[in-house]
């Protein structure tokens, strides 16, 4: 684990912004105008998806993927200017939030500045042409980190941006050598103390496939040597399988509990129900009561909470990465009041440093507990069930549901629940 990673990151909420489709104008200014609402939602860190110019060669869609970058050191003119970005970041800081940007260092667009000026820094196919090693990524070409001059260029680029922003979300970081990330973290710290490092670590199946092709594929345990936060793709498959009835909630709970023993003591997972690569939560979870219960569980989990722009209004449509596809901000389900309440709950120190356990005591219900020096925080989440009776290991008595303010009763080690999640401290 990065030895200086703070466990206080577990109390924080990150909000992901796809600038192009966040507003009709699709600019930094469109985001800046909405900052007070984002702050009021309960957000500590704003993550801007890639802000750089995009390639035109082999482009997907009309505008291209934000992850097919043409120039790491420039700003996408569709979004505005460098001054516009600085103004946005200044306002984020003025609202006591931090800002991180996407880093896409495994590959570039085929017509990138680097491919034209340093073709020797790239992977080449047997015929000498550029290529990529993941077949469906047809709009990019892979970099080759066997070239140490590339390391210097990439790290200098990170240091340049670290003068402005507070950290980096690193795309498919598992495909880039660990030694590079370790050096990058050390060098960037000279410019930005307490820089935030978030890794898009990858699914187990993807790791196995990449390694079978003779390529680098870092496990989460390796990733944690250089990064503060890692995606929870190691359990995301179990989550989806639960929704599809291919696995049980007990299987999902078991996968989460395993994280407590295989990662370092100060591990921080990025917890999410959706992101820009995954279906919308409300598409997966049509029932509003279930969606609210899953949202409460999301905030209760050990780690940092991720909200993808539009999730707070129950958006069902996932904006395409390749075209203009503005988020529909009509409130299909208004989760804002719930998220605001949950944000305040997760600031409790019990979430900072705890022994964390998840269980599935009966059909359709998850329970979880944070056991810490600050006390025990309990959660009961009827993600599918209605009107259940669950066993819970707390003294008999009356407790206050921190979500609603109402009282809940525990008798003979049992609690009756209806269709609303319960969080209480004992």
Number of helices: 14
Radius of gyration: 22 Å
Strand content: 15-25%
Q: Can you list the strand order of the major beta sheet?
A: 1-2-3-6-7-8-9-10
Shape: globular
Which structural class do the helices and strands define?
A: alpha/beta
The rounded distance between the terminal residues' Cα atoms is 31 Å
Largest sheet: 8 strands, parallel, barrel
Instruction: Report low-confidence residues grouped into runs of 5 or more.
Output: none
Number of strands: 18
**Helix content range:** 25-40%
Mean pLDDT across every amino acid position: 96
Structure, explained:
The protein is α/β, with parallel strands linked by helices and 426 residues long. It is 30% helix and 19% strand. It has helices at 19-22, 28-32, 35-42, 82-94, 113-117, 148-162, 178-188, 204-212, 220-223, 233-243, 249-262, 281-284, 288-300, 336-345; strands spanning 13-17, 45-48, 98-103, 107-108, 141-142, 167-170, 196-199, 229-231, 269-271, 304-308, 355-362, 365-372, 375-381, 388-391, 397-400, 407-410, 414-417, 422-425. It has an 8-stranded parallel β-barrel. Helix 6 (148-162) runs parallel beside helix 7 (178-188) and helix 13 packs parallel to helix 14 (336-345). The longest helix is centred in the middle third of the chain and has 15 residues, at 148-162. The chain is globular and about 70 Å long.
What are the defining features of this structure?
18 strands, eight-stranded parallel barrel, 426 residues, globular, alpha/beta
